[in-house]
Amino acid sequence: EVHLVESGGGLVKPGGSLRLSCAASGFTFSDYNMNWVRQAPGKGLEWVSSISSTRSYIYNADSVRGRFTISRDNAKNSLYLQMNSLRTEDTAVYYCARDAYDILTGFHYYYMDVWGKGTAVTVSS
Amino acid sequence: AIQLTQSPSSLSASVGARVTITCRASQSISSALAWYQQKPGKAPKLLIYEASSLETGVPSRFSGSGSGTDFTLTISSLQPEDFATYYCQQFNSYPLTFGGGTKVELK
């Protein structure tokens, strides 16, 4: 069964750092593009960052550019989000999500077909 | 960035009702639109992709339509398990963007 499990969330002071991890299982992780999406308390979904299967491209939302870094280790079936210079507005549940991929054609899609349960990040003094 | 405007932001409906949610893009996105369902405290779940394709395992009472800038998610006969918040997402270009959500509540 396909699973994504996030970890690393917690309470951090403004200006602090945190590293989120996402452990993937049940599929060939190295075939898939991956994303981080967040949701502030009581708010909607906000895309944060994407990384391609081979790390050849990375995209970031303007709100986190220069502060957050997405990375992956295909040998460890893991996705990461290094978050620096955290702000109170970064408080959210952070979800790891897999982009859809057609195994037969090798075509990548940019909508998210599998999501983890999320990890909560609270930025507060 | 492409903006997605969902309407209504919330609605009340009874079990068995037909429900329609609209998502409008600020520029043409062809059919690069997905719909997700999210229940409180849970992760989003993919329902529809490419504007009208039903994700495997999703009940056939869910359907999507539209192209260009105007899209619709329809639930043909609302079931108790369908009370949730629904989001559209465009994947035509980065930055990926979501609509503001539509909360479907029990009338």
Task: Give an overview of the whole structure.
The complex is a heterodimer of chains A (125) and B (107). With 125 residues, chain A is mainly β. Chain A has strands at residues 3-7, 10-12, 18-25, 34-39, 45-51, 58-60, 68-73, 78-83, 92-102, 107-115, 119-123. Helix content of chain A is 0%, strand content 55%. In chain A, the strands form 2 sheets. In chain A, strands 2, 4, 5, 6, 9, 10 and 11 form a 7-stranded mixed β-sheet that branches. In chain A, strands 1-3-8-7 form a 4-stranded antiparallel β-sheet, with no helix packed on it. The model of chain A has no long low-confidence stretch (mean pLDDT 97). Chain B has 107 residues and is mainly β. Chain B has no helices and 11 strands. The chains are: A mainly beta (125), B mainly beta (107). The A-B interface holds A 35, 37, 44-47, 50, 59, 61-62, 95, 100, 109-113, 115-118 and B 1, 32, 34, 36, 38, 42-46, 49, 55, 87, 89, 91, 94-101.
Q: What's this model, at a glance?
A:
Chain A has 125 residues and is an all-beta fold. In chain A, 0% of the residues lie in helices and 55% in strands.
Write the layout of secondary structure elements.
The complex is a heterodimer of chains A (125) and B (107).
Chain A: E1 3-7, E2 10-12, E3 18-25, E4 34-39, E5 45-51, E6 58-60, E7 68-73, E8 78-83, E9 92-102, E10 107-115, E11 119-123
Parallel strand pairs in A: 2-11
Antiparallel strand pairs in A: 1-3, 3-8, 4-5, 4-9, 5-6, 7-8, 9-10, 9-11
Chain B: E1 4-7, E2 10-13, E3 19-25, E4 33-38, E5 45-49, E6 53-54, E7 62-67, E8 70-75, E9 85-90, E10 97-98, E11 102-106
Parallel strand pairs in B: 2-11
Antiparallel strand pairs in B: 1-3, 3-8, 4-5, 4-9, 5-6, 7-8, 9-10, 9-11
